[in-house]
Amino acid sequence: MTTPIDASKSVAELVVEQPSLTRVFEKLGIDYCCGGKRSLKEACEKRGLDAQSVLLTLNALSGAQNGAADAETDWSRAALSELCDHIEQTHHRYLIEELPRIATLVDKVSRVHGGNHPSLHQVKEVFIGMARELLEHLQKEEGMLFPMIRGLEANGSAAPMGSVAGPIQRMETEHQASGDGLESLRELTDGYTPPASACGSYRAMLSGLEDLEKDLHHHIHKENNILFPRAIEKEASLR
Length: 239
Prior knowledge:
This protein is mostly helical. Helix content is 71%, strand content 0%. The longest helix is centred in the C-terminal third of the chain and has 39 residues, at 200-238. The protein starts with 10 loop residues before the first helix and ends with a helix.
């Protein structure tokens, strides 16, 4: 029998336990990555949602999947090195390939349609800044933090050059900045809704931004709520 979902648990805990719940949280606009430390009740209050109605929806989804294998890998049990590899090969690769493509669309659409839709100039400004910071962020993770985390597992000892806690704190701060950028883009584009006059490029830009938001939510969730806490716990056990 499925255990009812506890609204006092943090959103991050719920998603770690049942990754499929992210689909509901995405639709409701509940932040499960940067703001995942809030309880479900607090997250609902922040969004102006009725917590009991949300609980009914989540419990129905959880019950429907009871006994069925979740398509999402349980990263809370995977090796730390495996999770680092997955994040690099899936989410980092996605950003490296998609950010330049979306940047081209954002530049084109803001030039062509910015006169009639001035908010597009703000979209360009926010996106370009966020994309630059994200690419620098990936380099820090792949060049410093992830090797430190892999070393904890491979060497069975804490890193001699210092704790993973410092770099993790910096990465989480940068994650929050990315989350703020995504929120701004959603507001500026009216939830990625194309105007009636939108051309193909305009619609492709909005679709690209929406897909970017979804992928970054999953990406940041896996780091903030799974990889980073597990790395800190692993280091503590070795010291």
